[in-house]
Structures
1.
Amino acid sequence: MYKDSRRSFLRQTSQVALASLLPTSLWAFSGKSSKASVHVNLNQSIGTIEPEIYGQFIEYLGRSITDGIVNAKTNQVRNDVLAKVKRLAPPVLRFPGGTVTKIYHWQDGIGPKANRPVRPNLIWGGEENNQFGTNEFIQYCRQLKTDPFLVVNMNTGTPEEASNWVEYCNGKGKTSFAELRRKHGFANAHGVKYWGLGNEENAGPDTGRLQNPAAYAEMAWQFAKLMKLQDPTLSLIIAGHDEKWNEIVLKELHPIADYISMHLYASSKKGQPATLFTQLAGFEKQIEQTHQQIKRLAPEKVEKFDRWYRFPPRAKGVKLAIDEWGIWESEGKGTYNLEVTYQWFHALGVASFLNIFQRQAEIVTMATWAQTVNVLAPILSNDHESICQTVFYPLELYRQYCKGVSLTAEVKSEALRQSGGEDLPMLDSSASFDEKTGLATLALVNRHPETAIETTIVWEGNTKLNLFERHELTATGFTAYNTLDDPKKDVVHYQKTAVTNNPPTITVPPASITLLRYKVG
Ligand code: AHR
């Protein structure tokens, strides 16, 4: 409903009111101020914003783990980086890949560190010393108070190997892998809940040997059975891909799939930042289509699940785990140019992404940003310090305040128009209400580089609301960025202001992210 009304307004304004104003250049509206409205309905909940949509991902890839999470010389966790990851407060952390799972054997990363093998990283190049293995990862998660999410190797690994990993992590009895964990110093089971059945198993050039949905589905059943027999409480994430792939894997695997995964990497055309936002609009459609497909193929409740499986089927409906998302520009440093420098408009893209996840809260219940340090990351490090990239700030801000249930927020705003591209609203929005605290939050993202937007906010749902706080992120320029070459300089400006009245309109500056906080009732 939200999207339809937004689109029709855009169609209307772009064809009638704005028609004569729109040049064919990148931006349609070149004025310095514009008007918009947002109607939020406190009685229209889209769904719960699950905390797991604010997760992170780390992989054995370039300087993501070695030289990012841990010091490359000492193999000890880097406290400067850890402090920044703590600020991101991910409720879930995915590991060890990514594509690298196709060659990863978990037993290389346990036991005395001196005995662990150094292996070639056949996927991403270089060597991995396996000093940051299962237990180091779990300890890292504990420091972050985050839930671990492990992805199993379905290619050079076997169902038995994956099942043994479950036993090693979650086994409570006297069995050999549970005892091995104890011998390694971990008396209590790790209780790992989230397990990914492979990663991008469709990907042709990768070393994957499944690569077609029927083969994947058959193999994934074997993995699921042996893993669930070890621990029937696991939450399994099956590998999704396009519509055709998902059709088959959902039909076959839905009884044991708590989630189907989707990977969303956005990019922009060089010199055309707005193309990033267009792509995000396409992603939202893709999520909606997949939502419909899940509804069609996976009933909420699994009926007639054969008792001889000896474990129960999933307990809830299948949800979407966007277990890799982020912004992947082609120019960057390091391994496969993956050390991307993010400009300020990328941060506006991240806030727009998070608005999408809130608007799609009914189906998107997990999302882990790819990745965390150095590789496509909000945090960059060199051998002696680390910095936050522009994209770090919206991740941090949303995670603190956008909680509870997601509410419908209908935006009417002028259009951003790109040559050859689809019109998009300048203003992007999402809203939430946290019943626990009685506080509501409205997120407003102004994606125009020069135009402020005077926004009329209408709360529907016969409740009294008092705006009491405003959080605002802006930067020194649309393409400004932070760099390790000048680590003290931060181009991002954060402002928190107390508000004591209820102004009829709120003006959001150009290229800004604003969170408005309300007391309800
Ligand atoms: O995040 C980098 C890579 O992108 C991951 O390894 C893979 O899953 C995806 O293609």
2.
Amino acid sequence: MSEHLPPLREVIKSHELQAKKAFGQNFLLDLNLTGKIARVAGDISDSVIYEVGPGPGGLTRGLLSNGAKRVVAVEMDQRCIPALNQVSEAFENRLAVHQGDAMKSDELELLNLAPNETARIASNLPYNVGTALFVKWLTLEKWQPWYASLTLMFQQEVAERIVAKPNTKAYGRLSVLAQWRGNVRIAMRVPAAAFTPPPKVSSAIIHFEPTEPLDANVQLNELEKVVERAFGQRRKMLRASLKGLGVNAHTLLENANIDPTSRAEDLTVKQFVELALHYQKMRA
Ligand code: SAM
């Protein structure tokens, strides 16, 4: 039974899980807090949760206690595996743990979903690969994706970039990509003191739900090219920053009905989609 599990501080002591920087380890040891984070994921009773980096298992316990049907976790640090196996035993084997690198994992193969199961991702992400994993899950070719939601911890500054609106400093590639593919919000802020050891900056949980694309004809790689160019030189006017795209930047902007003197951060996500569509047309 889950109540037989020792407090997380004891788990860390007995399994010698002192945090290592190289693994991006900042642990959450307060089970009230991890329960709260798990609840951000919503009703998870029919869901299989894919968790990256369970560490000593704080969030994992939160997810299982909140009724997740199963949790499939990928943890890079070998030292955590015995502690996680104990969590699995305490929760009637609803937890499956895989040792490995989430950047290289095939999530669907690990999840092995039954037809009636919904997949969701929940993770207190390691800071060193957090953004790369988020981009991996946002840029899947097949959309709708295999997951129903993402509930992810980021450094607050990254979370703010993800939800940023046009005409703000934080608005950029991550905002456009995330808001192109779904609805996203900051669900919770988490102070540095909640972690062991505390990181230098505060963190925040974002909750993302995929939606139908704004325009089904737009190709991901073309949108990415346009967005990357535009924000690569964000202070420049678009007629200059889009020059390297291999088409006449002025004509492209005119076709998309966008003022050539505007800058990347002036454009809405919808306008970026327009740009990408016309870019595709001009290159066809
Ligand atoms: N979920 C735990 C918690 O909330 O206390 C730990 C979170 S800690 C910020 C990040 C975890 O991700 C660590 O346990 C670390 O070992 C693991 N990790 C780091 N890089 C990873 C990778 N590429 N693949 C899988 N796990 C990774």
